[in-house]
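Customer ticket, subject: "Can you confirm the structure for N-(5'-phosphoribosyl)anthranilate isomerase?"

Message body: Hello, I'm evaluating your service for our small team and ran a test protein. I'd like someone to confirm that this is what the system normally returns, since I don't have a reference to compare against.
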Amino acid sequence: MAVVAKICGLRTEETVRAAVAGGARYVGFVAYPPSPRHVAFHEAEALAALVPPHVLRVGLFVDPDDDLLGEWLEGGALDMLQLHGTESAKRVARIREMAELPVMKAIRVATRADVEQAVDVYGAVADRLMFDAAPLTDNPQALPGGNGVPFDWRILEGVTMPKPWMLSGGLTPENVAAAVQATGARIVDVSSGVESARGVKSAERIAAFLAATARL
Ligand SMILES: O=C(O)c1ccccc1NCC(=O)[C@H](O)[C@H](O)COP(=O)(O)O
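Agent reply: Thanks for trying us out. I re-ran your input and got the following:
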């Protein structure tokens, strides 16, 4: 089975087009105002309109309230939600019901126990899981995700996943092959690793990441 990719944190037409042209199967728009990758929902709608139906448009939220979700869901520009905060299993289930869209719960992991606990807690309520690195506590600039930091991929070894899952955290065109080999991931997610500066996506890096993924 081929390895497919999600390019997250897109903010410009040029980089959305690069992701689609390079073969991305998912594109992500960040609905989290403190992020340098944040887009307003009307900007996301305009970018989402450039995306063909075989590419899923993912809205990334961090502990969203119902008003924010309602605003983003109204236009029908999203195909999937990514919850990247501290949402409880109950909240994930509630959002899924309200949105009537598949929900992917992002889980920040540092140890094998984090992975197992997350699978227990979210395996039944989320449609997909995403494993990302826990933010470094000594970095004042750290966001809840999108920090370009990998975790020890060996902690995923041999875990039985109840749902489709994505590998994320610090992936780059240079390390994605090693990450896939270590984890067996079939879906990989990248943000920082395809940027020329924090929050600034590079069409060239996007193309390089997708080319590296296509070779796997
Ligand atoms: O990208 C952000 O700014 C962001 C803010 C708050 C929560 C999550 C965020 N991003 C998550 C992602 O972009 C990815 O899904 C993933 O975690 C990969 O990030 P990276 O390590 O930068 O490749």
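A couple of notes from the result: The mean pLDDT is 95. The pocket of LARABZUK is lined by residues 8-9, 30, 32, 35, 37, 60, 62, 84, 132, 143-148, 168-171, 189-193 (CB under 6 Å). Feel free to reply with more questions.
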